[in-house]
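During the reporting period the student researcher (J.K.) took over the structure-prediction task from the postdoctoral fellow and processed the backlog of single-chain submissions. One of the processed entries is reproduced below for the supervisory committee.
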Amino acid sequence: HPPYPPPPPQLLVHMATVDGALVRRVLGAGELKGHISHLAHLTLTLAARHPGTLAAMETSPGGAAASVAAAADGAAAAASMRAMLHDVLLLLGLFAHSSRANAEVLRWKWGEEPALLHRLCALPFAYFCEPHLRRVLLPTLLCGCLRDDINARILAARLNPLHLVAFLRAAADA
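J.K. obtained the following structure tokens:
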């Protein structure tokens, strides 16, 4: 099989690590800004609805009655969905970093769904405890609040800011 190109969120994350300012400027212009919001909301919705994607963070996937093949397929699909979710979370952080206009997207709702910032704070508890998951979510939350007082107040109402300070201190010491 020929190598496949990376999925769009992963490609955008890579581009943003090369030239974040350019990617923020391009994706923050016009309709693309709305597409980033839709992509994030859709990914969070799919992750919540896809069996095992987020539930696997709290409980082990599969059951005694599940066949080994079905459990393996389900675990692979959940792992793929989690990887896409993590790419989108990283993209959101890179998109919002140092840009009040882009960080505003975190306050946008999608239909009946809560604002992105609220949805991020409602991710499973493991995202706030497990080191590898904290490294995905917490930088995104920090980037979304950097130079954005409204987002910072929303986040402080849902998450103790000392939690983020401890994360930053640990990262600085590493």
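The committee noted the following: Confidence is low (pLDDT under 50) at residues 59-66.
J.K. will present the remaining backlog at the next meeting.
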